[in-house]
Amino acid sequence: MILHVDMDAFYASVEERDRPELVGKPVIVGGTPEGRGVVAAANYVARRFGVHSALPAVTAKRLCPHGIFLRPRMEYYAEVSDQIRAIFERYTPLVEPLSLDEAFLDVTGSEQLFGSAVRIGQTIKQEIRDRLRLVASVGVAPNKFLAKIASDLRKPDGFVVVEPDRVQEFLDPLPVGRLWGVGKVTGRVFDTLGIHTIGQLRRLPVDMLQRHFGNCGDHLWQLSHGTDPRPVVPEQEAKSISHETTFARDLEDVDAMRAWLLELSEQVGCRMRRHGLKGRTVNLKVRFEDFHTITRAQSRPEPTDVTHEIWQAAAQMFAERLPSRRLRVRLLGVGMSGFGQTGLRQRSLFPEVEEQRHSRLDEVADQIKEKFGQLSLQRALGMLHNVEHRSGPPGADENQYGR
Ligand SMILES: [Mg+2]
Q: Domain containing 60 — which CATH number?
């Protein structure tokens, strides 16, 4: 059995936990409302105002003028993410992180030792609450696809189990939009076909799906039957580190996409540096609203763990190597692979000055964040928006724009 554990409003929840004065207020973590950044996370109070992740911060400000806008503290969230992971790893070595705040766990081999998958799921959820004072939603199911749907179904604080012999019962009443990859375009086709639920979709002949959706027809047919053969691949064995995010609403704004690529690059870079890894190849994954998915890779002459370089490569592939059609984007992912020797700094006779400078910048940023956990260091977003952010004491950013 597979668990999908997804933290509720992760960044915002971490901020609320550390600063009780924020509880009950709309907390929005992400870009500045006057810049062009996007919302990385909004707590549930803010969501009542219609604020959600990937929304331009300017729009968030309009929807929720009293919102408390905070800059993300990525390194700190990564630290908390590691603490969550440590809890997972008490129960299974098969942990596949999707991002800082969600992961798949294969607990099939752990059931003898720790009890049923449901029991393990409950224990993990409780431990996250007790030890870290954070709330996770958990899905327990026979495969990844079902576990992911399940964890999302009763958010926040959800716990949904899909028993292997009740998969169809579980899926059939759900709207087709719950299927991975059903975006706006596909949704419209389904509308015209009069298909609204997964159950209705399941009863369609596969060749009809192929006619309407090409290769994706197969994929949809499989999913509607609850089939997903992908294994859980733990990070240590995976020869890559990648983070991806599916947007609550398909993304249209190119600047927002670039900001997300940076956010994902930062997550990946951060994890690489924590593990002492450097990679040669930067991978980009883009899924469009019609759920056509494209992956691109770019290799570099020298391995890197530098956020800025990962982002540059990802942004370049995004700008230059995608089809020119203008579809909305449903998912973005950034990854690194081609790991060389770990922890070794390349010493060359003619050092790439730029690389070293950025590398140094990351190191210093890591150190500072370690030392002053509360200080929000916005080098990354600052670079993107070309804005020098003020640094200040903890919380100085709060309400800076909230007047
Ligand atoms: Mg989450």
A: 3.40.1170.60
